[in-house]
Amino acid sequence: SMQCLPSLVLALSSLLGALALLQLSLYLRVPSRYGKHEERLCRARLPARCAWFLQELPSFLVPALLLALRSPPRLEPLGCRLLCCLFCWHYFYRTFIYPFFTRGRPFPVQLLFFGTLFCIYNGFLQGYYLIYCAEYPNNWCTDIRFTSGLLLFLLGMGINIHSDLLLRQLRKPGEVTYKIPQGGLFTYVSGANYFGEIVEWFGFAIATWSLPAFAFAFFTLCCIGPRAYHHHRYYLKTFTDYPKSRKALIPFVF
């Protein structure tokens, strides 16, 4: 039976933090080459729906497998179950719902490969910690860290899903042109969907109060924060009527 190794959790979390800084250094000046920033090179691509499904699936399956393989099954305390469910809930949506509604462009296989590797890695780290290592008191569900983190997680997920819906409505089936996002938090920021996901994972980190979750939240910020910035620059450059009052990522600040 698998045992908790605190040194493994520390090593994997530290590596995730280092990967976050690497992402920031690579993509702060030059955007990651997919979607509206993709260079038209002759690279193998998969349809967006298939690519998103394959990429996100490990983040749902790996924790689920870790939970299934644990003997005896871990059902207590309630806080542990809820936190594991939050992580799997997000990736159930990203794997089994989001891909079948997306209208994105075909996705480069090279980026899909690295995205899938990350989802395996992070799915293992978060699942392994919560299922084999995390220790919470029985009253964790009433702790201010859990309740405030849960509220942030739900708020962020709501913003993320609503923003994705608004982006989908910009395009008719078969369209690939880019338009100015309108409504919701897009009134204030260009990267409303990214802002929602960042809030979501920092909420998760507060609710779990763990190094792996904070490392993942930091990685999310370093990975999609620069993307929101480059989206903002793209919109300003492409559309002369783009609202000048909008910020890139954080309302009224950045």
UniProtKB/TrEMBL annotation:
Which PROSITE patterns does the entry link to?
S5A_REDUCTASE
Q: Where does it live in the cell?
A: Endoplasmic reticulum membrane; Microsome membrane
Q: Name one GO biological process term.
A: sex differentiation
- Which residue ranges does the record assign to the 3-oxo-5-alpha-steroid 4-dehydrogenase C-terminal domain? 106-254
Task: One GO cellular component term, please give it.
Answer: endoplasmic reticulum membrane
What the entry lists under Pfam families is as follows: Steroid_dh
Mind telling me which residue stretches traverse the membrane in this protein?
Answer: 107-132, 144-163, 201-224
On whether NADP is a keyword of this UniProt record, the answer is yes
| Catalytic activity field | 17beta-hydroxy-5alpha-androstan-3-one + NADP(+) = testosterone + NADPH + H(+); a 3-oxo-5alpha-steroid + NADP(+) = a 3-oxo-Delta(4)-steroid + NADPH + H(+); 5alpha-pregnane-3,20-dione + NADP(+) = progesterone + NADPH + H(+)
Q: Which UniProt keywords apply?
A: Differentiation, Endoplasmic reticulum, Lipid metabolism, Membrane, Microsome, NADP, Oxidoreductase, Sexual differentiation, Transmembrane, Transmembrane helix
The answer to keyword Ribosomal protein applying to this record is no
PANTHER family linked: 3-OXO-5-ALPHA-STEROID 4-DEHYDROGENASE, 3-OXO-5-ALPHA-STEROID 4-DEHYDROGENASE 2
This chain's function reads:
Converts testosterone (T) into 5-alpha-dihydrotestosterone (DHT) and progesterone or corticosterone into their corresponding 5-alpha-3-oxosteroids. It plays a central role in sexual differentiation and androgen physiology.
What is the official name of this protein in its record?
A: 3-oxo-5-alpha-steroid 4-dehydrogenase 2
Q: What species does this protein belong to?
A: Centropus unirufus
